[in-house]
Design a protein that fits this description.
112 residues, mainly beta, four-stranded antiparallel sheet, three-stranded antiparallel sheet, 9 strands, dynein light chain binding, WD40_repeat_dom_sf, WDR60 protein, DYNC2I1
Length: 112
C-alpha cells in the first residue's frame, strides 16, 4: 500500500531485496514477473503508472516508467509464450471503463 516492493525467497521470511518508495508512495495494485525473461518484472501503481524492472540492468531502480494518461488502469497481466524464444511479451491493461488494451513490450525486456 505504500509503494514498497520486496523480493522474497520461499525459504525465508526476510526479503532478499527491498525497494522503498519505488512509486513515490502510490499503492501498487498489480505486479507480475515477465513470462519470457526471468529477471524482469512489471508493477502497476494506483496512478496508472507502469514500472519495468530489469534486475540484470539495474537492481536499484526501475529501468523504465510508462504513464497511462487517458484513463485509469485498474489491473494488468502479462501474456507471452515462455517456451518460445521469439521474445513476444505483451501487457494486458484493464481500464476503468471496461476496455482492454494490449501493448507489446520492447524486445530488450522480453527476450530470454
Amino acid at each position: 500500500s505504500d509503494g514498497s516492493i520486496r523480493l522474497h525467497q520461499m525459504t525465508s521470511e526476510h526479503p532478499l531485496m527491498q525497494w522503498n518508495g519505488s512509486t513515490k508512495g502510490q499503492p501498487i495494485i498489480a505486479l507480475q514477473w515477465a513470462l519470457t525473461r526471468p529477471a524482469v518484472f512489471f508493477a502497476l501503481d494506483a496512478s496508472s503508472n507502469i514500472y519495468i524492472w530489469d534486475l540484470l540492468e539495474n537492481d536499484l531502480l526501475p529501468v523504465a516508467k510508462q504513464t497511462m494518461p487517458s484513463e485509469r488502469v485498474v489491473t494488468m497481466t502479462l501474456l507471452g509464450e515462455p517456451e518460445k524464444a521469439n521474445g513476444l511479451l505483451g501487457i494486458v491493461l484493464a481500464k476503468e471503463s471496461g476496455h482492454i488494451d494490449i501493448q507489446y513490450v520492447k524486445k530488450k525486456w522480453a527476450l530470454p
